[in-house]
Amino acid sequence: MNKTILIVDDEPNIRILMEQALEKLEDEGVELLIAENGQEALDIIKQEKPNLVFLDVMMPKMNGLDVCQTVKKELKMQDVYIIMLTAKGQEFDKQKGIDVGADLYMTKPFRPKAVLEKSREILGI
Q1: What percent of the chain lies above the pLDDT cut of 70?
Q2: pLDDT band at 8 (very low <50, low <70, confident <90, very high)
Q3: Check: CATH 3.40.710.10 for 3-123?
Q4: pTM for the complete prediction?
Q5: 123 pLDDT exceeds 90?
Q6: Within the chain, what is the greatest distance between any pair of CA atoms?
Q7: Contact, 105 vs 97, CB < 8 A?
Q8: Distance of alpha carbon 103 from alpha carbon 100, whole angstroms
């Protein structure tokens, strides 16, 4: 069964960093998908049902919290593991994230190694 990770961030440099952190997994059959905003992310999630989503909170068109809420509460896709990405020092209400069903948080800037290890753990690789 192929595993899929979706990276969602409106900043190109963050997407590139995430891709570089996770490219090792591609050798192990993990597919990396990319979205640049919340609406695009939601479309991909509905279509591809990724195992893991790294989801930026602050984005145009639809923010990460709204995407998470839609996926977890409306579409009831509990098996999609969602990690919210928040900028360091950004006032982020963790309760809000919990309310919308986020599984985990990571603050940016993140350590690529931590991203890779967490992904392996979640995907059971």
Answers
A1: 94
A2: very high
A3: no
A4: 0.94
A5: yes
A6: 38
A7: yes
A8: 9
